[in-house]
Each structure stands twice: as structure tokens, then as C-alpha cells.
Amino acid sequence: MSTTRKRVYGYLAEFKSASALYKGAEKIRDAGFKKWDCYSPYPIHGLDGAMGMKRSILPWFVFFGGMTGTATAFALAYTTQVVIYPTVVQSKPTNVFTVPAFFPIMFELTILFSGFTVLFGLLALMQLPRFNHPLFASRQFHRATDDGFFIAIEARDPKFSADGTRDLLASIGGANIELVEEEDA
Amino acid sequence: MAHHHVTSSDIAINGDHLDPSSVSKVKTIAGIIALVGTIVSVLIFTGVFGPWIRGTYAYSWEFAFYIFLTIPIGATFWVLLHNVSNASWGVSVRRTFENIGSVFPWLFLFSLPLLLPQIQHYLYEWMNIHRAATGDVKEHLHHADHLLYNKYWFMNLPFWYGRVAFYFIAFSAVIIGHRRLSVAQDTDPNPGTWRLLKARYHSNYPLIIFALTITFTGFDFAMGLDYKWFSTMWGVYLFAGAALNSMAVGVIVCTWLKSKGHLKHVVGPEHFHIMGKLMFAFTTFWAYVTFSQFFLIWYANITEETSYFLIRNTGNWNLGMIALVFGHFVIPFVVLLQAWLKKNPKLLSIVAVYTLCMHVLDHYLITIPERGISLGNIDPKTFGEIQVSIPGAFWGDILAFVTIGAAFVFFLIRALGQHSLYPNRDPRILESANVSN
After folding, report:
1. What does the alpha-carbon distance between residue A103 and residue A119 come to, in Å, rounded to a whole number?
2. Do B1 and A49 touch (CB under 8 A)?
3. B291 chain-A contacts, CB cut-off 8 A
4. Do B75 and B416 touch, CB atoms closer than 8 A?
5. Residue A178: what are its φ and ψ, rounded to 5°?
6. Three-class DSSP category at A76
7. Partners of residue A36 on adjacent β-strands
8. Which residues cross the membrane (chain B) (predicted)?
9. Cβ–Cβ of A101/B1 closer than 8 Å?
10. Contact call for residues B266 and B190 (beta carbons, < 8 A)
11. Which of B295, B337, B339 sits opposite A100 (nearest CB)?
12. Residue A175 distance to chain B (closest CA, Å)
């Protein structure tokens, strides 16, 4: 159907350089927006601070993921080597005091579980993988991977208003401001 | 980028010099303690108080000397690594590490008791066997102790003294040369980059000298206490402790200087963050290597190797070893995970002091458990039969530690007062001051 109403994703504005993007991000942060993002071809140092982003929760996931790995390894080694089938090797004890022999596998599984937690925790927090993104509807947005610096403010943001946000983006140096609408569902 | 962007107008043109009057009190007190302790130690070593205290104090001295030897060696390692890796972040703290490293040549004075046969008599049993030889030493060992016969190519007196000379001549030359080169830049009207390139060139082969020094001082002073014992991880183990704790001393010194108003624009939270990260890395590395050493010995189950851990798992030494596992690894590991803590100089200094305390415990467990056994072997009439630890000898450990520690502080403050506290004409000082990670 050609008359379906399209959902508005938000405003997209282009900035001419990394430093302009940085300064623009600081102003949007100070204006109190929460649901918005910057897009640039390369990482910009300190941009997370300019956007007012909080530290990620991911390290906590990783810490407890790693602890889980340690516990798993200990449980595995202890169960097999002590509980189920104790084997005397070189008169080493077959009780909890043989724990030095378990350390290598405890170390390895800590790292393995930490690595998995990093990978899957990161994907979960970034809501990846996804098939599409509303911004792909914009014709100019593909330049974000080449030479374009963009800021997109989402319509979901409580401070979003059709005119006010556009004027704000224009006042802080945004060019080519366009209202991005989601494509037909 | 919350902090002020440093420009060349913030860099003191003639350098940032320590005010002598503000530190003269600490320096004088440290100097007096070191002097009094040295006089008492000399009296002990000359045998004024009898052979019992002389024998036990030899071990105290060995422990204190070696722990303070590791710190300048480690600091020099950081200087060399900084130069050779062409790093820019550490330019503003490099001078601090050069100053810590410059204590190394002075420590030769404190190694003198360990070079005297009368003191070595209590410490290094292999030397007693060598010295008891009549005629050709190697031929004598062939009949007396075949293990020493096989180790003769390494464990012989001329070579031992030659190695000690090598450590103090070659490694002192490294640190003195680097400090001279770095200090000469402070007054040069046209600093240029040639010193940078020269320092980088003269940092690659000294890293080999550094590796030989930390490994073989460990072999000659610490591992030689028991000539039957050996460990293949020994040098790495001592290196891990040295690198970690010289970084800890660097953090403490930088914090202390900042509290006095120095290093104002050039050392900030970011530098402490990096140094804290390195401390964290080497805490982990220390644990890795220390456990590796234990594990190799535990698994292989070779009599010559296991003696080390058998001694240290007997009686109350075991408590110390368990305390080391948790105190030297688990607690600092969890504490240093915090990024906000590593950016706070005062909190990081508290962690650094704690790490140094654990380093002391570590080296105490390396050196002292050997005392009751060796002395019981050498002279049971004076020291009693072989025992876990000699009661009452603990006070000597404190005296030796305070003496050499006070001397270390004295020479460190003396070095800090000599020149600018950061290389103010280094071409990369601004890059370093504005570092962010």
C-alpha cells in the first residue's frame, strides 16, 4: 500500500569535521538529549565524554563471567580427579590439596569464559546482529563509512520536537539536515 | 579532555627544581638513620657482639640488600623500555625513574659485607667448601662434593667476584649514562632530537645487560644460599617483582612530588592511570610466574628442587606463603581492576605501599627460611641444631631493612634534588603532558 504512514526515526545532520562533530555532540549532551548517536568513519578520541556516555556495564559481566569460568574449571577438575576417580600420581594428594594441578585449566577457562562474555555481552549491548537500520533509508548516510560525520537524534527522545530539534541541529553547525523515515515495513 | 590543555607556556623554562629546604628534614633524618644503622652493622659484622648475631645478621643484610637492589634495577628497566619502545606518554615521569635507578651505584657500598669471606662463611656454603680445598680446587671437589665439581664452571670464586663486578660496573654505567644524557638536555638551548635517538640506540643492548643483572644477582646472592637448589624460573620471578615494585615506588614518588606542588602540569591522572595499569599487569605477571615456578617444581618432584618449597611450607613459613598468594595477587588484582582508583594518585599510592609491603614479605620468604638450616649446618654449637627459624634473629632483619631503606630514601631524595624533576626541554614533553588513554 502506498498510503501507509511511515514512522519517523529522527533527524540526521552532517558536520564538516571531527572537531565540529565533537563540539556539536557536547552541545546536544548539554541540551539533555538521551537517545542519539554520532557516526564517523573512524574513532574520535574523547567523543564518549563529549556525548556524556556513562561507563559500560560490560566489565561487570566479564568479571562474573570469568569467575564462572574459574568455578566451572574447579568443579570439573575436582569432580573428575577427586570425587569420581581419584588417581594417585607421584604420591600427590587426592583431595582439595591437589589444587595446584587444577590451576592451569582454571586459568584457561577463566580466560575462555571472559572472552565469550566480552563477545556476546558486547553484541547483546549493541543489539547486534541486526538486519537493517532505519538510517539506511537516508541517501547521504552511506558516507559515514567514508568521509561524513553525522549526528542522528531519535524521535523516541522525550526532548525531541519536529521544529526545535531541527533548529538546534542547524544552530550548532549541522548541514544537510533531513528527517529520516523508516522504509515501508 | 576535562583537564586543561598544556601548552609550552606551562612548562618551566629552566626546569622544575625541588626546593632543598622543603625536603632537607626528611633527607637529614633518613641520612642519620642510615649512618647510625651502618655503624651498628659494621660493629656487628666485625664481630663485636659475638658470632651468633654476626651469623644471623648476615642473612638479614642479604635480605635487605637484595630487596633494595631490585627496585633501582626495575626502575632502570622502565627507563630502558620507555626509550626502546619510543613511547611518548612517559616522558614526564621518565626522570623520576632515572632518579630511582640512580640509587643503584650507591648500593655497591651495602654489598661490601657480602663480599667478605668472613661473612660469606655464614651465607654461602659452597664457598666454604671451595675455600677448604687444598691444592687444586676442582680436583678437591671431585672427591668432596661431586655436585660442586659439576657446577665448578659457574660456581667458582673468581668468576663470582667477576660477576659482582660486572653488575655494579656495567649496570651502573647504563643508568648513569642515561641520566647524564637526559639531564644534559635540560640546559641545552637547542635540544633537538638527537638525544632521543641516542637514548633509543643505547637502550637496546642495555636491556640484555639488565636481563643478565636481574637474573644473575638473583642466582649469586639469593639462589646461591643453597647451592644444591635451583629453579629455572628464578630470574623471571625476580624480574616480575622488581618491575612491579619499581613502578610502585615511581607512583609513590610522583604522588609525593605532586603533593609538594611539583610536576604540576606534566603529570596528571592519565599518567597515574597508565602506571596503575602497568602495576596491574605486573601483579598478574608476578602471580603467573611465581605459580609457574611452584608448579614446575611441584610437578617434577625432583629432590634438589622441592627443597625450596618444603622449607617454606614447614611451620609458620607456610602461613607466609599462603599470605603471599592472597596478599600479593588476589587482593591487588581485584583492587587494581578499578579504573577510577588508578586515576587517583593518593589511592594508587596506598595500593603501591601495600604492594611494597608484600614485596618485602616475598623477599623475606626468599632469603630468611634458609637461615635456620644453613647456620645449623655450619655451626650447631653457636646457632643450635637445624631449625625452622632462629628465635630472636628477627630484630636483626628489622635493623638491616631500616638501615638500607633509610639509605635508599636518602640517596633517592639526593638524586631528586640534583636536577629538574622532569625533562623540561624534551621535544615530546607536551605530547606526554596531554596524554589521554
Report:
1. 24
2. yes
3. 100, 103
4. no
5. -135, 150
6. helix
7. A153
8. 29-53, 65-84, 96-116, 159-177, 205-225, 237-257, 278-299, 319-340, 347-366, 398-417
9. no
10. no
11. B295
12. 26
Contact: B436, A104; criterion CB under 8 Å: no
Nearest to A25 by CA among A180, A183, A176, A174: A174
Amino acid identity for residue B163 in this structure: R
For residue B299, give the chain A residue with the closest CA: A101
Q: What is the model's pLDDT at position A185?
A: 55
Give the residue among A129, A117, A111, A127 at the shortest CA–CA distance from A59: A117
- Give me the residue from A49, A55, A103 closest to B295, CB to CB: A103
Cα(B183)–Cα(B420) distance, integer angstroms: 8
pTM (2 decimals)? 0.89
Q: Is A63's CB within 8 Å of B295's CB? A: no
CB contact under 8 A, A103 and B1: no
B1, A46: Cβ pair inside 8 Å?
yes
Candidates A49, A7, A38; CA nearest to A150 is A38
Interface test with A, best of B270, B289, B301 (most A CBs within 10 A): B301
Residues 6+ positions from B345 with CB-CB distance below 8 Å? B251, B254, B255, B258, B269, B272
> What does the block give as the cell for A30?
548539554
Residues of B in contact with A45 (CB under 8 A): 436
Query: What is the per-residue pLDDT across B112-171, written as a single tens digit (0 to 9) for each?
Result: 999 999 999 999 999 999 998 888 888 889 888 899 999 999 999 999 999 999 999 999
Give the C-alpha separation, B235 to B4, whole Å: 43
- How near does any CA of chain B get to the CA of A100, in Å? 7
- Residues ≥6 apart with Cβ < 8 Å to B106: B407, B411
pLDDT digits (tens, 9 = 90+) for A54-95: 888 999 999 999 999 999 999 999 999 999 999 888 888 888
In single-letter form, the type of residue at position B8 comes to S
The residue among B252 and B190 whose pLDDT is bigger is B252
Output the average pLDDT for chain B. Answer: 92
* Cα–Cα distance, A93 to B313 (Å, whole number): 15
Residue A154 Ramachandran class (φ > 0 left, ψ -120 to 50 alpha, else beta): beta
